[in-house]
Amino acid sequence: MTDADCRAAIAAERAKWGDRLLILGHHYQDAAVVALCDAVGDSLELSRAAAASRAERIVFCGVRFMAETADILARGPAGGDNGRSVWLPAPKAGCPMADMATAEALGTAWARLAEADPKAAWTPVVYVNSTAETKAFCGAHGGMACTSGNARRILGSLLGERRKILFAPDQHLCANTARQLGLPPEAVALWHRALPDGGLPPAAIRAARIVAWDGCCPIHAGYTPGDVAAARAAHPGAALLIHPEAPAPVAALAEEVGSTKGIIEAVSRAEPGARLLIGTEDHLVRRLAAGNPALDIRPLRPIVCQDMGRTTPEALLRVLREWPEETLTRVPDALIPPAHACVRRMLAVG
Ligand code: 13P
Ligand code: SF4
Fold first, then answer.
1. First vs last Cα of the chain: how many Å apart?
2. How far is CA 286 from CA 299, 317, 330, in A?
3. Model's pTM, two decimal places?
4. Which residue, 59, 130, 174, 334, has most beta carbons within 10 Å?
5. How far is C-alpha 6 from the chain's CA centre?
6. Which atom belonging to ligand 1 lies closest to the Cα atom of 129?
7. Is the CB of 90 within 6 Å of ligand 2?
8. What SS3 class is residue 202?
9. Distance 189 CA to ligand 1 centre (A)
10. Could you read off the pLDDT of 46-79 as tens digits, one per residue?
11. Alpha carbon distance 292, 93 (integer Å)
């Protein structure tokens, strides 16, 4: 089938559903997939779109944690079957960072924090890039989710209430957000999954305002200060816009640190002729460069999320035609109420 035939077949299938179907796509999807989506956004925007939608079926061009979040929101606070379902065209599209924190390991850390500092008001916060099970743990313990677009607001409001935070799984988003909130580096203690008691003595837990899980996005975490030096030497005068999943010493060198939406907005504000280096996934960087010919946009260093790249127009067409069982994303009923509380509390903060 040619690309044009595939696009026409998708349009024909799409038309049968009207507003009973919503096709969502993350900004890191390939341009050919983005062109087929009803709404494209960052994690926060897509969570909001899923929450606002009444569609019977949501097809999520992204990775599993995003489809799970959409399912949690589509099924409502009680869970069960309300006739709504979420489909992931590339069922193998996971997120290695999400898999770095399990609910069980988080539970062990949680117990240790309460033991080391029992007087503190601890709150768990999970980056939306996390498993449904982990979100359920967080929701069951009074916590909430955050995305890279609202982490500052959420952590800022909890710290303002004198709460102490267990943050998982992204250590870099945590460190960058803490820096933006003006916390000194020693206010964040790193919980090392592989070490007994996270490698943290009780005094370090008591001294910290945030305990951060040691997970990371293997794609963004690979950026180094050397990448910035090399890119600035090759493109003198260029401003660096970078995603907060990059390590803090690299993000500290950037003119702007923002979610994918934040980066897109910064590009839209740039004056014609501006030179920009962008430190995030390459599908987005290439689309921004192609869509803004008046700007000189280069990748800080091209990085590709293979999981995001698994969705193709052919895979989308297969879902719309066949609705294969393995593409149905269904969070277990028992996890929905606490996981829903976790995501709903985030959306209430904004
Ligand atoms: P955003 O929260 O910016 O959409 O990022 C999601 C993601 O997976 C980044 O790697
Ligand atoms: Fe996960 Fe990183 Fe891919 Fe985002 S870019 S989906 S955090 S592996």
1. 43
2. 8, 24, 33
3. 0.95
4. 130
5. 29
6. 8
7. no
8. helix
9. 23
10. 988 998 999 999 999 999 999 999 999 999 898 8
11. 29
